[in-house]
């Protein structure tokens, strides 16, 4: 019997190692490297990586634009980590929310030519780990040999591709009746992704017929809005209004997807909030951190709906992108149901940006 790790297991282990600041080995189809999350670099780990050879700081093209670093590889830039580069300078370069305590220094020299496949894989891994999209990369001749010699986790490019597909494949783990304020006839379904990422939930109210479009809300987790009543967004009011509307109709489903901060995680969302306090809007803050406007994967919601037997929904959303994503993933949207709630003096700019830059219908 083979005890070797499957592709999703290998990627899940690599993500976990990166989150604790440990390096991992990657093999991007022959471009092998040792990588670690830039935000967690220590002097000892940096010196150990320098001992392997040339070290690059891989950042997304979004962050490169902020640093005025040339992204010769298109979607990323490879900043040269020279002998004078310290962990503090690296952290300042990748985390703009630290500008007051760690002023950013430049200019930054970037590499041109050569293979950036390992750097690209490294950025995908740290983003999946909900870390800043920045990684230290040290090329090695053989990833498997290096992983074995150094006791590191190995991740391969082809395995990452499998993991991306697996992110939309979920297993139903458990279901139980949970009486709610809006309806005593409710059940909570728990789904677990095959790639070891966060679990997601479906709150089913009543007995929505599978052959008709079900009233549905795809709600992304928002710790600040949903749990502690933040006024910076409209998430909490949308969650409660959606549940109330489903309860009033007597049947429907609310999907609670653990994709905090438009998919960047709570820590990075707080970094974005700090940048917003400095004058940047929601989209600008994400870009300065190195992320895209929206990093969520709505295929997850479509897979949950299909696994529950739904093929058509009346989708409660102000975001046309969700409608498009559902249709592309095989769930038709018979009707878009507006959900305009939660406006207050603290989030008017946030909502205006969602309308102007993200196309939300508010």
From TrEMBL:
CDD domains recorded: GTP_cyclohydro2
InterPro entries: GTP_cyclohydro_II, RibA, RibA-like_sf
One of the record's GO molecular function terms: GTP cyclohydrolase II activity
UniProt record, GO biological process: riboflavin biosynthetic process
E.C. designation(s): 3.5.4.25
Cofactor(s) it depends on: Zn(2+)
Domain of life: Bacteria
Keywords (A to Z) from UniProt: GTP-binding, Hydrolase, Metal-binding, Nucleotide-binding, Riboflavin biosynthesis, Zinc
Pathway(s) the chain acts in: Cofactor biosynthesis; riboflavin biosynthesis; 5-amino-6-(D-ribitylamino)uracil from GTP: step 1/4
Annotated Zn(2+) binding sites: 222, 233, 235
Catalysed reactions listed for this entry: GTP + 4 H2O = 2,5-diamino-6-hydroxy-4-(5-phosphoribosylamino)-pyrimidine + formate + 2 phosphate + 3 H(+)
Cofactor stoichiometry and binding remark: Binds 1 zinc ion per subunit.
Pfam name, any one: GTP_cyclohydro2
Statement: the UniProt record of this protein carries the keyword Nucleotide-binding: yes
Every GTP cyclohydrolase II domain range: 176-338
Binding annotation for GTP: 217-221, 238, 260-262, 282, 317, 322
Matches recorded under SUPFAM superfamilies: RibA-like
TM ranges: none
Active site: 294, 296
Enzyme class at the top of the EC tree: hydrolase
Family indicated by similarity: Belongs to the GTP cyclohydrolase II family.
Function statement: Catalyzes the conversion of GTP to 2,5-diamino-6-ribosylamino-4(3H)-pyrimidinone 5'-phosphate (DARP), formate and pyrophosphate.
Name recorded for this polypeptide: GTP cyclohydrolase-2
Native species: Rubrimonas cliftonensis
Gene it is expressed from: ribA
């Amino acid at each position: 019997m083979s005890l070797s790790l499957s592709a999703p297991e290998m990627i899940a282990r690599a993500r976990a190692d990166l989150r604790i600041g440990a390096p991992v080995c990657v093999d991007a189809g022959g471009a092998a490297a040792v990588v670690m999350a830039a935000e967690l670099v220590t002097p000892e780990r940096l010196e150990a990586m320098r001992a392997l050879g040339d070290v690059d700081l891989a950042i997304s093209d979004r962050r490169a634009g902020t640093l005025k670093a040339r992204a010769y590889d298109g979607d990323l830039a490879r900043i040269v980590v020279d002998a004078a580069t310290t962990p503090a300078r690296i952290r300042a370069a990748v985390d703009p929310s630290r500008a007051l305590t760690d002023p950013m220094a430049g200019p930054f020299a970037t590499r041109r030519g050569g293979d950036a496949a390992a750097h690209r894989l490294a950025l995908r891994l740290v983003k999946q780990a909900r870390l800043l999209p920045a990684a230290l990369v040290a090329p090695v001749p053989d990833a498997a040999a290096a992983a074995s010699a150094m006791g590191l986790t190995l991740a391969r490019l082809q395995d990452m591709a499998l993991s991306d597909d697996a992110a939309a494949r979920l297993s139903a783990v458990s279901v139980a009746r949970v009486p709610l304020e809006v309806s005593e006839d409710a059940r909570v379904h728990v789904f677990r992704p095959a790639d070891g990422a966060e679990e997601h939930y479906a709150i089913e109210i009543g007995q929505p017929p599978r052959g008709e479009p079900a009233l549905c809300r795809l709600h992304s987790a928002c710790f600040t809005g949903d749990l502690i009543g933040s006024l910076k967004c409209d998430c909490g009011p949308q969650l409660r209004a959606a549940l109330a509307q489903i309860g009033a109709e007597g049947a429907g489903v609310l999907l609670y997807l653990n994709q905090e901060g438009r998919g960047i995680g709570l820590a990075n969302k707080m970094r974005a909030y700090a940048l917003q306090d400095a004058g940047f809007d929601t989209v600008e803050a994400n870009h300065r951190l190195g992320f895209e406007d929206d990093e969520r994967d709505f295929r997850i919601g479509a897979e949950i709906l299909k696994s529950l037997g739904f093929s058509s929904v009346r989708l409660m959303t102000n975001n046309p992108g969700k409608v498009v994503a559902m249709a592309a993933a095989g769930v038709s949207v018979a009707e878009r149901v507006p959900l305009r709630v939660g406006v207050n003096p603290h989030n008017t700019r946030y909502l205006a940006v969602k309308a102007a830059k993200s196309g939300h219908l508010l």
